[in-house]
Amino acid sequence: MKKMATGEISVTETEVYLVENEFPDEKIFGYFNFGQPTFVINDEELAKKIMIQDFEYFMDRRAITDSSEIRNAFMTNLKGAQWKQIRSLMSGVFTSGKLKLMFKHIKKVGENYQEHLDEVADEGADVDMKVVGGKMALDAISTAGFGIESNSFKDPENTFRVQALTLVGAPGYVSQLLMVKMVFMLLFPWVAKVFNFQISDKKAMQFFTDIVRRTFKHRIETGERRNDIIDQVVDEIKDFKTKLNKKSHSYESQFEKDAGMDTSDVQDLKDSEFSDETLLVSNTLMFFFAGFDTTTLGYTMCCHKLALHPEIQEKVYDELTEVIGNHEVTFDRIQDLKYMDMFIAECLRLNKTFNAHERLCTKDYKIPGTSFVIPKGRFVRIYVRSMAGAEGNFVNPGEFDPENCNPKNNPSKFAQMIFGQGPRNCIGMRYAILTMKVSLVYLLLRHRVVRCDKTNDKLVLDAKNPTVFKGGVFVKIEKRA
After folding, report:
1. Does residue 319 contact residue 126 with C-beta atoms inside 8 Å?
2. For the whole model, what pTM was predicted?
3. 118-157, pLDDT tens digit by residue?
4. What are the beta bridge partners of residue 478?
5. How far apart are CA 436 and CA 114, in angstroms?
C-alpha cells in the first residue's frame, strides 16, 4: 500500500486507513501486506469464528524467523502441532498462583520506582512517561524473568538495559535501517537463512542467551529457587507429560476457557526438534520480547489518561487509600483494586497503538452463509477498533469512561481484544496487567500526575518507529500533601 510504503502512515495504521477511508461498510476485504494477499475481517461474529469456534482453520501466525535457532523456537513462530506442544508447556507459567510467587520481585522494582518519582517531583521537570515506564517494565522483566536485580532509575546505562534496548530496536540504540531490514526479511524470509541474517542484534541476542543458559545451569546444579520465570519454565518442562495426561481442566476466566484446546495429539517434549535448554532459553527470551514494549505502551497510555482526566485519577487514588492506604502492598491487595482494573481495561480498549490480530489460514475456509472461500496460505487480519467502539458492546463506547469495563454493566468480553482471543491469545496477559497495576500503585500512592505544556491531547505513533509516540508522553509528577 502506497501510503504505508512512503511513510505517510505507520504499518500499524494500515487497517485503520482502509476501514475508515476505503471500505467502511465491508465485513471482509483484501489488500497486499508485505507482498502477501491479506484479508481484513471487520465483523464481530466472523471474528469469533476465526479466533475461537473455527480455530482449526486459523491455528498459525506469520512467522518472523531468521538464522537464530533461539528466535525460531519462539512460541510465536511455531506452527501446527509444534506450536500446540509449546503452548501447552507455557500456559502454566502465568497462572495467578505462579504470579503470586513472582510478586515480591516486581514489588521491589515498584519501590525503586517510587523513590525515583520522589526525585522527579522534587526537580519539577517535565517527564516522559514512556521512558520512566520503560525502566519500570524492564527492571520487572529482568528480575522476574532473568533473575537479575537491576535499578535502571539510578543507573540507566547499566549493561542489561543497554543490551535490552538494543535487542528490541529502541531509538538511539539500533540502526535506523532496522525497519527496512525487517520488511525485507518478511518479504524474502529465505534470504535470512541463506546469508545468516538475524533480525535482532547478534551481540545483544547472545548476551541474553548466555544469561539464561548460565542461570538455568546454576539452578539445576545448586537447586536454588527464586520462583521467577526461569524456575516456572523448568517446572513446566519437568511436569509436561503429567500435565498432558490430565483429563480435566479448570479455567480462571472465560478468556482462558475460550483458549482451551484438545491436547490429546500433543507429543512429549523429547520428540520436539528443540532441546529442553533451547526451549527454556527461547521462551524466556520470548517473554522479554512480547512483554517489554507492550507493557510499557499500556502503562504509558494509562499515565496519559490520568493527566487528561484528573477526576478519574482521584477515583483510582481513593480506591488505593481504601484498599492499601498505609498497609503493606501485597499481591492480594493488588487483586482487590477493582476500579483500577476497570481503568486499565478502558485505557487498553481505546488503545491506538494496536488495530488488528493476524492469523494464517491453514486450510481452505468457506465464510459461513456465503460462497466465498479464503484460500489456504492467506493471511487474515482481524480488525479490533470497530468492536471496541460498537454500540451495544459498552455502555458509553464513544467516550473514555472506566464504567465501560465495569462487570455490572455487562461489557463485551470479546470486544476487549488487546490480548487477543482464543488459543492464540497472549498467555502473559496476567503478568502485563500485574506489572501495570504495581506501577500505578507506586506512582499514585505518593504522587499526582498533572498536565504540562508538552502534554499532547492525543497520542500518535511515529510512522517510522511504531513503538514511539510523536512528541513523547510528557507530564509533571507532583507529591501529594
Report:
1. no
2. 0.91
3. 999 999 999 999 999 999 999 999 999 888 888 999 999 9
4. 448
5. 14
